[in-house]
Amino acid sequence: MAEISDEAIRAYWKEHREQLRQCETQRSTLSNLLIVITAALSALIVQQRFSLYVLPLCVFISMTGLYGAVAVSKYYERASYHLSQARALTKDLAERGVLGTDERLVKARADHYRAFPRMHRIRLHRLWVVLHFAIGLYGLSLLLICAVMA
Questions:
Q1: Fewer CB within 10 Å: C terminus or N terminus of the chain?
Q2: pTM for this structure?
Q3: How far apart are CA 66 and CA 129, in angstroms?
Q4: 114 phi/psi in degrees, rounded to 5
């Protein structure tokens, strides 16, 4: 079997890191788009004074919230995959002696955890999923308001 060069491993590592960034960018773009759509449809619903005609818009807002929750969960899964691949390649590079020791990284991580003892435990992807579920619940609450006002 042919020996894989350090340069090839670094290129593969870089590709996985770029794919990780792309997943985060796509998640951010989708979230921003769904928030803008929700805001615009909310304004339309209020302008129409919560009439029965806007019930489909309320359902649509709920559906976009649920879609967003599933989509950001999938983006997290893909980002985790690329991060795990990059970490495995980092270990390969460290074993080959291409990278220095990780003592500084371990110390910096420990310092960070001491500086943020509670916040580092909160997973960012959970916040994004909760945001999208909140959009879904918001759509359902608009639906309920429209039904009551009619």
A1: N
A2: 0.89
A3: 9
A4: -70, -35
